[in-house]
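Take a careful look at the protein record below. Let me know whether the structure tokens fit the sequence:
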Amino acid sequence: MMTVNRQVIMASRPVGEPKPSDFAVVEKPVPQPGPGQVLVKTLWLSLDPYMRGRMSAAKSYARSLEPGDVIVGGTVGEVVASQNGSFRPGDIVLGYAGWQAYGLSDGSDLRKIDVSSIPMQRYLGVLGMPGMTAYTGLLNIGQPKAGETVVVAAATGAVGAVVGQIAKIRGARAVGIAGGAEKCRFLLEELGFDAAVDHRDPDMPARLKEACPNGIDVYFENVGGAVWNAVFPLLNDFSRIPLCGLIAHYNDTEAPPGPDRLPGFMRQALTKRITLRGFIVSDFSADAPAFERDMSQWLREGRIRYREDIVEGLENAPEAFIGLLRGRNFGKLLVKVA
């Protein structure tokens, strides 16, 4: 076993868009497990937009990182030493070790996973937190019905791609919004969406209206910004909006320019009887067994497809993360650590 633990820490709190200098790679001794503890070697690291929120000092649903902290993140790893009777060396576990080569755990945040027939990194994507976010947000809040139109932003991302495919399984029309012609082709040809709209198109609002001739019944919000501005006029009476993310605003340092549009939104929400609910995947933790059952079945049947964007090496995580916030990734963004 290695004696050096490489870690990526938050060197300074980002102001606006994160910069490479906001991150640092440091080396520490590999920790040794005490009574009840487990030492896990990180094999795969998940990169997700929510991590930008954790780098902010603003009050949120989880504790903010402080300069010097290892950056948070979901991981798949191998148990290499254990003083916990529930785990033994060689076990492959889903955990939350963050951006480091080795992590210590008391076992409460670890879950043994079966990798005999499933690539282990899939538990960080379609079979993990992103997949469950799509499943629980769409079905609990969006509640799509056959024949309705479901629109999802960031539609080729780890969450958005699953949202659209579940909408299709439920008999709805799936319209995806993504950046660039290649991503739009992927939505149509690989994932089976009914329509795809390029948010980089100068006429994007008109293209979205053409793709949604009967308006929008469910809008799964991952982005905000100009995409939201195009969606809002098309929302139908009794439309539902699962609010999952606002990646267009994560680097904002001040309020957006222009008039206050909140009163107009409130009026439309009232007259159209719109439901908007923000959520965190843990709100629906009781749905985990149903998610795992349904998603496993859909994968076996080929009804859910997925794409992974893999980066090699922990030291490349900061650059990949900055690219994620710019929409450079194509599919679920993962770092192969070991």
About this structure: The longest strand covers residues 38-46.
